[in-house]
């Protein structure tokens, strides 16, 4: 069975009716790259850079970060690599940074909010990314954007560091895409506006579900509310995909939902382009997509969104999956 799947490793992901999508991998460090390559990822859809900052006693320097980003880009041989800027705060702490104690860390100073308030730290990371950009197809992504001012400020700092490097005679790629995560409901609802600004979106369902349902993603006692295929969540996702596609921008998903076999047919039907997941899920997902028809699933979307609950949606999808191919 594994050997059978392995044969799909070198193939592009195309549905039975000829629709092309991209299956990418989520990584947290360079140690994950071996599995990514073995499993035939078409790119990196999410590099969680916070792990470079954790498990040590001081901030990583620009040079240290540069070496790591360069290594990842080189290993991926010009395939797309989405590197997310630091997403610390929330449940992830840095003991050496003395962040303020907050009563609701998930609603507090995390991710891009923290980076914009600690610009020294943010600029260091941006410079390392820009310097590494010439070694592959780098895409830079900002996490937790909620309002356009955050986006504009993050872009401004990136542009400033880019100009500074160019003046210093450092080579910077001219084709870096800059995108944002859609993981705060406010950003999902404003996706038409953001789609005019960003080069791409990646939907972070882990947080999007948590914030939409007001249910802590780590809290077992409210885990019944954590429903990726709830009609409300699917509506938000469709809104984001449509907004991006209208502006000719590509949309991916890097939350756990992207690798969830129950959700993949729905996301495919909605027109999601890039699915980024743990490397181990890639080949089974490719196998499924190659044997299914995207137009068939697209035709079910309106009925799915009219349903009342995740249970009804999952039963419908299960039944259709059973009767297909
Ligand atoms: C997400 O929120 O879906 C996501 C991919 O980011 P993280 O899990 O790192 O918060
Ligand atoms: Mg997140």
TrEMBL record:
Sorted alphabetically, the keyword list is: Coiled coil, Cytoplasm, Kinase, Magnesium, Metal-binding, Phosphotransferase system, Sugar transport, Transferase, Transport
Q: What class does this enzyme belong to in the EC scheme?
A: transferase
Where it sits in the cell: the answer is: Cytoplasm
Cofactor(s) of this protein: Mg(2+)
Q: Which reaction does it catalyse?
A: L-histidyl-[protein] + phosphoenolpyruvate = N(pros)-phospho-L-histidyl-[protein] + pyruvate
| EC number in record | 2.7.3.9
Does Electron transport count among this protein's keywords? no
Keyword Transcription assigned to the entry: answer is no
Q: Which residues form the PEP-utilising enzyme C-terminal domain?
A: 3-292
Family stated for the protein in its record? Belongs to the PEP-utilizing enzyme family.
Main function: General (non sugar-specific) component of the phosphoenolpyruvate-dependent sugar phosphotransferase system (sugar PTS). This major carbohydrate active-transport system catalyzes the phosphorylation of incoming sugar substrates concomitantly with their translocation across the cell membrane. Enzyme I transfers the phosphoryl group from phosphoenolpyruvate (PEP) to the phosphoryl carrier protein (HPr).
Q: This chain belongs to which protein, by name?
A: Phosphoenolpyruvate-protein phosphotransferase
- Shown segment, full-protein numbering: 250 to 574 of 575
């Amino acid at each position: 069975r594994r050997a059978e799947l392995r044969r799909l490793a070198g193939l592009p992901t195309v549905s039975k009716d000829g629709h092309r999508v991209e299956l990418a991998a989520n990584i947290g460090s360079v140690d994950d790259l071996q599995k990514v390559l073995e499993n035939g990822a078409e790119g990196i859809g999410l590099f969680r850079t916070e792990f470079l900052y954790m498990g040590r006693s001081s901030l990583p320097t620009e040079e240290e970060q540069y070496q790591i980003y360069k290594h990842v880009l080189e290993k991926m041989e010009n395939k797309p690599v989405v590197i997310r800027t630091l997403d610390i705060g929330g449940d992830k702490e840095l003991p050496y940074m003395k962040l303020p104690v907050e009563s609701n860390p998930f609603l507090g100073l995390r991710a891009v909010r923290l980076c914009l308030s600690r610009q020294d730290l943010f600029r260091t990371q941006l410079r390392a990314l820009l310097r590494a950009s010439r070694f592959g197809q780098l895409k830079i992504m900002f996490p937790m954007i909620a309002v356009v001012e955050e986006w504009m400020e993050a872009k401004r700092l990136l542009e400033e560091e880019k100009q500074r490097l160019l003046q210093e005679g450092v080579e910077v790629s001219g084709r870096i895409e800059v995108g944002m995560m859609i993981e705060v409901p406010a950003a999902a609802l404003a996706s038409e506006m953001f789609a005019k600004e960003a080069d791409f979106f990646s939907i972070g369902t882990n947080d999007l579900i948590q914030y939409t349902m007001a249910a802590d993603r780590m809290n077992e006692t409210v885990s019944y509310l954590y429903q990726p295929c709830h009609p409300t969540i699917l509506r938000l996702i469709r809104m984001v995909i449509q907004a991006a596609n209208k502006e000719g921008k590509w949309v991916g998903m890097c939350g756990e939902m992207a690798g969830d076999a129950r959700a993949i047919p729905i996301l495919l039907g909605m027109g999601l382009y890039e699915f980024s997941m743990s490397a181990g899920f890639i080949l089974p997902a490719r196998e499924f997509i190659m044997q299914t028809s995207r137009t068939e699933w697209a035709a079910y979307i309106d009925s799915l969104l009219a349903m009342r609950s995740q249970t009804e949606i999952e039963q419908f999808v299960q039944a259709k999956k059973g009767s297909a191919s």
